Amino acid sequence: MVDLSTNCAGIRSPNPFWLASGPPSNTGDQVSRAFDAGWGGAVWKTIGVPIQNVTSRYGSIDYGGKRVVGFNNIELISDRSIDVNLKEIKDVKRRFPNHAVVSSLMVETKEEWKSLIERCEEVGVDGHELNFGCPHGMCERGMGSAVGQEPEVLAEITSWAKAYAKKPVLVKLTPNIGDIVEPGRAAVKGGADGLSLINTIKSLMGVDLDKMVPLPVVGTRSTNGGYCGPAVKPIALHMVAALARDPVARKLPISGIGGVSNWRDAAEFIALGSSSVQVCTAVMHYGFRIVEDMIEGLSTYMEEKGFKRLDDLVGRAVPAFVEWGELDLHYKIIASIDRDKCIGCELCYIACWDGAHQCIEKGKLGPAVIENGHALPQVKVPRILEDHCTGCNLCSLVCPVDGCITMKRVDDGKNPVTWNELVAKTQLIKAH
Amino acid sequence: MAAPETRALPARRLELMMPDLKPALTEAQARAEASRCLYCNDAPCIAACPTAINIPEFIRKIDSGNYRGSARTILDANILGYSCALVCPVEVLCVGACVYNHQDRPPIQIGLLQRFATERAYEKGTRFFEKGAPTGKRVALVGAGPASLACAHELTRLGHEAVCLEARQLPGGLNTTGCAPYKIRSETALLEVDYIKGIGFEVRTGVEVGGNVTLAELEKTYDAIFLGVGLGPDSRLGLPGENLRGVLGACDLIERIKNRETVPEVEAAREAVVVGGGNTAIDIARELARLGLHVTQLYRRGPTEMGAYAHEQTYARKEGVEFRYWEQPVAYVAGKQGPEKERVRSVQCVKMAQTGAGRQPEPVRGSEHELPADLVAVATGQEKLVSQLRTIAGIKFGADGRIEVEPSTCATGNSRYWAGGDCANGGKEVVNAAAEGKRAARAIDAAFKAALRRAPGAGARGA
């Protein structure tokens, strides 16, 4: 059996799967049911001065018959009183002493931060997450992403929190910035114990073309919201990895967030440096029950790969994440089509011809094969122009048949050279 | 809105007892199915469609919710796209060519998606095409079946005046009188006729060319003539007892089931014998089985030689049709007494055997036996309707009686005559007729234009 237990910035939990701060972690009842289902931790729905919400609050992108590929919300922080939230946290911690309960916090003044942090610790939270990320509503009031976008302010408020907190402090980062490393380093400067990211991405979900109001519709108006769900995973992975390899920020453990729907997504976040992962949209879509497959899938994968503890997997793929200039310019692959698997859809051909580098030729029909007086359907297998193929990979990505188009290595594997090396060599020549 | 012609149909018909074989998709089903389509480039389904409908494009439009555009794509290629969606043997055409078949995944249900798009346009009464600017040219179309309708529609789009002359009381050809009711009902066929001619051409029914109007008269009045007369009455084998009550040609019987209020021969029957191995034979066998009769189908060769589509044979078997291969009838036998003497009561059969490869099967001596039957449907082909056409100078006929045409233009040996549909192709699908009719229209248009170029001063002129 592999050991999935984790210690993320000093916050311990039986597995790395935490509910992200959001509607699924709004109440003690929900968090209790989540823990019963198998979740290892929960970041409580952000607590602060109670707000008033609007309806509707959510929008989604559907694609290819799948619902909620991308999701956004214009919901604010908890609309329940601080007292009620704290009482329920206390109850949950009493029932689940070994699970992680993290208080997500968002207030304005130094006094408010002090009071809220101390009160949360009194009811037994295992850590705090400073919500410097929400890109809607709260930022207009000087909180959420308004803080996350100002490294100086972020560092300062983090240092306040650290001064009052005995428990670990995670800083939740907004992706709505130019370079995630800046707020990451600011969190280091402020003394944070860890980072959690990403918060949602500023977004507009679409437009109701009958009403001429963007989505989600609130009466006759709409506003920008926070984008999340499976579609944001690549953006989140990049930001997690950028921090995991940054010489300054990498000292902080990471709780990875952004489009995690299954164990494979989670494993990717972990391999890029996360020691816990947080999930919200997938739970909003399918419920707490998805954690069963996440635990089982991750355990099986780790067992098959020989990872005994979660820590063995954390950050494993980070060293391979480099700048473009460090890539091997001599590494050469070309596409290869398996004639037996090809179904003749020509999607590779049209993608290459119109959308890439014109290296695939249309297939030709062979002589007709007649059976029972009818010509058997034939497959026109396209042909890769191997001398021209740039190895871009587009054909294999659009091919609907698994394993039909593969990329074959054609270089000799020797003498790798990077752009940075070439530049350095040129400069060396110039210097002489 | 019901087509005016549907008034000529009795409200009660046997065909109404046969529900849709493939029920229409709901919107949710259609969207889900459309989203599965790979949107192949140069798709094999298009190549498999005689009318070359841009199938991936119309499916993509269903997927995006552009239903109107989807119907336009279909009908632009094939104005009979609605009935084709219902009656096409998609298993051997578009659906059979779907690339998913090579991946052992269920192929896209193209016929049902085409039905979804076109049915919606029909229900909403959406019209897509208009009469072209008048050229002054007039074309007579003999027959008002799929070939003539497709030809007349295309001619009208090109600005020519088209008139379909139909000998029957109902237009629509085999869609109205011959296609299996569980695929298309006669009123559906008539609705489609109404929609098609809504572009602005005339369909005159009860006009028999060679009867109340002559070809010579047509030649005087029209600049071109399109022959879409279809096939003639059911062939007869010349067996004893062929004239007994209860022995009917398959096409005749199907027409009665589809268009008449009652068909006493069917309603009184329990044991039916179908003679033949083609698609018409399978059709009538399945129809009778669906009406509750026990059906035995006789075919003088084996299952692999059967002309009927393999999928149709499979369906028929599932529906309880009993196939007897290597057997053929030698006589239809009447009852013994009173009115029974006029009615068929059994079929005398003989077993057949092939004496060598490629040889005609021959009766096996001493193998005679009798099958009980109170209804016999003879589906051994149809005669060609050639007698009056033989008089047209230049038109040639094949050995099998079909009109010989140049395949790319449907032109006959007479420069004023074109021909398409069953009378020229020997009896194919509605979709083939639709393709040929349209092709002929384009060729007729080209011929008119070529004539104008030759005689530039002549200009357009009405007769």
Instruction: Determine the structural class of chain B based on helices, strands and strand pairing.
Output: alpha/beta
Through-space gap between termini of chain A: 60 Å
Reported CATH architecture of the largest domain in chain B: 3-Layer(bba) Sandwich
The count of DSSP E runs of length 2 or more, i.e. the number of strands of chain A, is 22
Strand % of chain A is 15-25%
Structural class of chain A: alpha/beta
Distance between the termini of chain B: 35 Å
Q: Could you give the count of β-strands of chain B?
A: 14
Question: In which order are the strands of the major sheet of chain B placed?
Answer: 3-2-1-4-14
CATH homology-level superfamily of the largest domain in chain B: FAD/NAD(P)-binding domain
Outline of chain A: globular
Description:
- The complex is a heterodimer of chains A (432) and B (463).
- Chain A is α/β, with parallel strands linked by helices.
- Chain A folds into 2 domains: 314 residues, TIM Barrel (Alpha-Beta Barrel); 108 residues, Alpha-Beta Plaits.
- Chain A is built from 14 helices and 22 strands.
- Chain A has an 8-stranded parallel barrel, surrounded by 8 helices. A 4-stranded antiparallel β-sheet of chain A has the order 5-6-14-11, with no helix packed on it. Chain A has a two-stranded antiparallel sheet with strand order 1-2.
- In chain A, strand 5 and strand 6 form a beta hairpin.
- In chain A, helix 1 packs parallel to helix 2 and helix 3 crosses helix 5.
- The mean pLDDT of chain A is 95.
- Chain B has 463 residues and is α/β, with parallel strands linked by helices.
- Chain B folds into 3 domains: 115 residues, Fumarate Reductase Iron-sulfur Protein, Chain B, domain 2 (Orthogonal Bundle); 129 residues, FAD/NAD(P)-binding domain; 132 residues, FAD/NAD(P)-binding domain (3-Layer(bba) Sandwich), CATH 3.50.50.
- Chain B contains 17 helices and 14 strands.
- In chain B, strands 3-2-1-4-14 form a 5-stranded parallel β-sheet, with helices on both faces.
- In chain B, helix 3 packs antiparallel against helix 4.
- The two termini of chain B are 35 Å apart.
- At the A-B interface, helix 12 of A face helix 1 of B.
